[in-house]
Amino acid sequence: MGLHRTLDVNLTGAFLLIQSVGRVMREQGGGVIVNVIPVAGRDELPDRSAYVASRFGLAGLTRQAALELAPHDIRVNAVCTGMPELATSEESHDDVAAAVLALCADDSTGQIIDLT
Fold it and tell me: What CATH number does residue 106 fall under?
């Protein structure tokens, strides 16, 4: 996948979703957005510059959106996970679900939970 396609899917898609959902949440008085960032976005990978940039960008987007949406009682957080295609047990999926639920239940914003 080329640079533009990778950024469109992994970063622009998340941006547009946060923007759209943020509008609805603002009208409803608040809400919680949780992004999921695969671990590959935090490590160096040969020949994967666009992918790594898109994942680091999603972490930055999470924190920036948290700042911008906080005045509207919208919290934005993320969970940094392992690679879903490498998951070998139901436990890893349960860990992700538990982290997402924890971020939805507390008052944090701009947080990134690292499950790696």
Answer: 3.40.50.720
Count of Cβ atoms closer than 10 Å to residue 38 Cβ:
19
Domain of residue 86 covers 3-114
Query: 22 vs 86, which has greater pLDDT?
Result: 22
Q: Looking at the 3D structure of the chain, how many domains does it have?
A: 1
Catalytic residue ranges: 51
pLDDT of residue 41: 43
| CB 78, CB 58: distance < 8 Å | yes
pTM of the model: 0.85
Average pLDDT of span 62-75: 98
The token pair that represents 49 in the structure block: 């510059």
